[in-house]
Every structure is written in structure tokens, then in C-alpha cells.
UniProtKB/TrEMBL annotation:
Protein name in UniProt: Annexin D8-like
One of the GO biological process terms: response to water deprivation
InterPro entries reported for this sequence: Annexin_repeat (IPR018502), Annexin_sf (IPR037104)
Taxonomic lineage: Eukaryota, Viridiplantae, Streptophyta, Embryophyta, Tracheophyta
Gene Ontology cellular component list: cytoplasm; plasma membrane
Single GO term (MF): calcium-dependent phospholipid binding
Swiss-Prot/TrEMBL keywords: Annexin, Repeat
Length: 256
């Protein structure tokens, strides 16, 4: 049994409430909903039954039932995008910490989305995401980078500048391969914290244009430490998100 788009939200909610234990029904009727439809149904369900449909599906997922993974996916589907990222961020902070998921959020989302995500995280978990990242133990190089990117989303200018990109590219070179030893962490953190993702993308592109190779290729040095490895991964996400998404998707699929 499936409901049509022409049905009222009230009738749809009643059907969902009636068949909450029927995973097949839930998949057939929730998985194809648009973001707007999910919000309307979620709001209507809360108004009618006084409960959040997301919470109900989430509780079913936590109950350890055979269908728990499906219910967890449906619960995530019903969330707004920034709420979903807040959930992903919270889960990523559980041991073992998934730094890649956090990097993806801070490098591949618009600043307006990140600000809504930070608000959603605070509302849902009564915690500050920045503070949770800062409290990670043992300390990790990704902490400084993630904190810098978070600050960037709060303070940067939306405009991009070729002049700034050229200056930043030269600073990265002078404090990196232009000298011996490890890169200057303070310079990298300063640039990451003060530039938008679009500006950083232009900076790394300019670096490639000036010096004939990418910044990531310079960082691919076995003599470097964890900080350089972290910067390299972050730079990859900034420069080519689709490629990184493809890798994540490929690694999540079962081998055939």
C-alpha cells in the first residue's frame, strides 16, 4: 500500500502511524519523498501525535531490531540537511573519531549551511560542536584544522580575490617547500581560518599555476608528519569534492 502525492498530510501521517512497524511500507512511502515533503509530513505528524517522527524512527533503530539500519536511514532522510549533518558530526565524534566526515562537512558545505548546522547541533545535543572538537583526546592535528575551517565559515568574505590567492600561494610555498623541514603550521592555520572555501580553492589552483605542481603533491612526502597528512587530505576535499565523494561512495559499497 502506498499513498499518493495528492493525499493530505493528515491522511499520510495516519497511514504512517498505522504502519510504523511495517518496514516495507515505510520504505515504499518515505524513501521517495522530497526534502519539502519530508518537512511537511514531519511537522504534521508532530502536530497530530505530539511526537517527532524522526525520534520515533531513531528509537526503533536504537532498539537493535533486525530493521534498525533501515529505520536509521529513514530517520536521517526525514531530517533537514543541516540537522542531518549535525547528526553525522555527532556520530563522527564517537570513537574511533571519523575525521574525514568532519572535514567533508566543513569543506564541502556553504557557510550558510555550516552556521545552521552549528545551531542544529547546539539545539539537538545541547553542546557546541567547536568545543567538542577542541576537547578530542588524545590531541590530533585535525583539531586545529577543523577549528580553523569553522572560524572561516563564521568570518570570511564571500568575495574571492586573485591577488589574495597569489599572496597566499607564495606564503604557502615560502613556509613549505621553499624551506627545509616541516611546513609552518601557524601559516597554514591562519590561511585556513581567514579564507572562504572558494578562496582557498583559488589559492591552491594558483599554487599549481605558479609552481607547476599541486600543493598536495608537495605534501606527499613520507618524511612529513601527521599535520602535513591532515592538510593534504583537507586540501583534496577543497580542490575536488566530487572525486572525494566518489572515493567515499566506492569504499562504502560491498565488493562484488
Amino acid at each position: 500500500m502506498t499513498f499518493s502525492r495528492s493525499e493530505s498530510c493528515e491522511n499520510i501521517c495516519k497511514e504512517i502511524h498505522k504502519y510504523l512497524g511495517d518496514v516495507v511500507f515505510l520504505i515504499q512511502n518515505l524513501a521517495s519523498l522530497s526534502q519539502i515533503e519530508c518537512k511537511k509530513i514531519r511537522d504534521a505528524y508532530t502536530e497530530i501525535y505530539g511526537e517527532d517522527l524522526v525520534q520515533i524512527l531513531g528509537n526503533t533503530a536504537m532498539a537493535g531490531q533486525e530493521s534498525s539500519r533501515t529505520c536509521a536511514a529513514l530517520s536521517s532522510l526525514m531530517l533537514n540537511p543541516h540537522e542531518r549533518d549535525a547528526e553525522v558530526a555527532r556520530e563522527a565524534l564517537n570513537e574511533p573519531i571519523n575525521f574525514k566526515a568532519l572535514v567533508e562537512i566543513f569543506t564541502c558545505r556553504k557557510s550558510s549551511h555550516v552556521l545552521l548546522l552549528l545551531q542544529a547541533y547546539r539545539t539537538r545535543f545541547r553542546r557546541q560542536l567547536d568545543q567538542d572538537i577542541a576537547k578530542i583526546e588524545p590531541p590530533n592535528p585535525y583539531q586545529k584544522i577543523l577549528m580553523a575551517l569553522s572560524a572561516s565559515h563564521k568570518a570570511h568574505s564571500a568575495d574571492i580575490s586573485q591577488h589574495i590567492a597569489k599572496c597566499d600561494a607564495k606564503r604557502l610555498h615560502q613556509t613549505g617547500e621553499g624551506k627545509s623541514g616541516a611546513i609552518d603550521e601557524s601559516v597554514v592555520i591562519e590561511i585556513l581560518s581567514k579564507r572562504s572555501i572558494a578562496q582557498l580553492n583559488l589559492t591552491f589552483s594558483t599554487y599549481n599555476h605558479i609552481y607547476g605542481h599541486t600543493y598536495t603533491s608537495f605534501l606527499k612526502n613520507e618524511k612529513f608528519g601527521e599535520f602535513e597528512d591532515a592538510v593534504r587530505m583537507v586540501t583534496k576535499f577543497i580542490c575536488n569534492p566530487p572525486k572525494q565523494y566518489a572515493k567515499v561512495l566506492f569504499n562504502s559499497l560491498p565488493l562484488l
